[in-house]
Amino acid sequence: MQFRNFKMVGYVVYGRGSFNQLDEIITPHRIDGSPMIFLVDHFFEGKPLVNRIPVRGNDKVIFVDVTYEPKTTYVDSLAQQLKDEFGTVSGVIGIGGGSSLDLAKAVSLMMNNTGSSADYQGWDLVKKPGVYKVGIPTLSGTGAEVSRTTVLTGPTKKLGMNSDFTPFDQIVLDPELTADAPTNQRFYTGMDCYIHCIESLEGTYLNEFSKSYGDKALQLCRDVFVNREGWDADCDDKLMMASYAGGMSIAYSQVGVAHAVSYGLSYLLGTKHGIGNCIVMNHLEEYYPAGVKEFKYMVEKNKIDIPTGICKGLSDDDFNKMIDVSIGMKPLWENALGKDWEKIMTREKLRGLYERL
Ligand code: NAD
Ligand code: ZN
What we know:
Elements: E1 11-14, H1 22-26, E2 36-41, E3 60-64, H2 72-86, E4 91-96, H3 98-110, E5 122-123, E6 132-137, E7 151-153, E8 158-162, E9 170-173, H4 183-201, H5 208-225, H6 233-251, H7 257-269, H8 273-281, H9 289-301, H10 316-327, H11 330-337, H12 341-344, H13 347-356
Parallel strand pairs: 1-9, 2-3, 2-4, 4-6, 5-8, 6-9
Antiparallel strand pairs: 7-8
Helix pairs in contact: 2-3, 4-5, 4-6, 4-8, 5-6, 7-8, 7-10, 10-13
The protein binds nicotinamide-adenine-dinucleotide and zinc ion (ZN).
Zinc ion binds next to helix 4.
């Protein structure tokens, strides 16, 4: 038995207003003359948060376009732009949802690795550590702040740069930053966390480490989406910790059916991670009966729309592409259904599931 020996985030600060400590935190990491680069979710362009970013000397703020989930081509062009302008940089600081955090991780790595980020999509392919990197989430749920991956869509696949060099050196968890998230977006990203918990806790890879974090994250998700009315600052505090704990839970287990199926949707149709997981979860009674029942309750209680009929009119070829991507996620299926998963989740069965979405 080989136990996973995983690299974690270096430093963590948590608390309302902890963003104000950013200047102090990054100062020791400034290398003479090279700038800190702030990759900021384009949602914040023109918003008050921008004036609070500790820009010094030749530091640069780049508003990143997260209309689509991060592509390897976008990562490569951002890294190239920085190399052309500065040669090297002191660090990269991502401020935003999971997409901006993933961009920051990937750009940091590509400052010190040659070629294209597409060359490193996979497990442990990254050769050198990146530059100093900081993650500051403004949405809670993905767990991207703690994970050892950065999910990218490349020319041939949607797969992370999964490596020991990928986790952030520092994360700043300031729940105030999530306060303005729209209800639907907050729910979709929050459900990413809920689904991480269900997939981890119901999976065959579960051990006490991932269970401890998963149980806690699940309870926090219920606190905010099941057991109360409305939304307040306390909910932002709780969901931010749920995201962290949910991420820690899957660090030692794995996600499952909802993610495996949702990756196919994302690859073919560009469906975003949070909403894609919700669309799939809505139809997974067979695999996660209690989780799906509770999920549907939360959807209704929080008055959220989950799209249906998104695979209507797709061709056989389209279905086959999604099935290929999904079936390729072997560890997810093995976690969900056990060693004999291939006998359970046949291509026909998966096609039936996609047709219902
Ligand atoms: P996102 O980062 O894609 O952002 C969704 C939308 O919310 C965007 O329009 C963004 O501009 C906006 N937004 C962000 N913060 C906001 C705020 N405070 N107020 C209002 N709007 C705000 O959403 P997400 O769900 O956080 O992240 C999804 C991405 O994370 C996907 O690209 C997915 O692949 C990735 N992901 C990565 C990991 C990992 O471990 N690395 C895990 C899960 C998901
Ligand atoms: Zn997820």
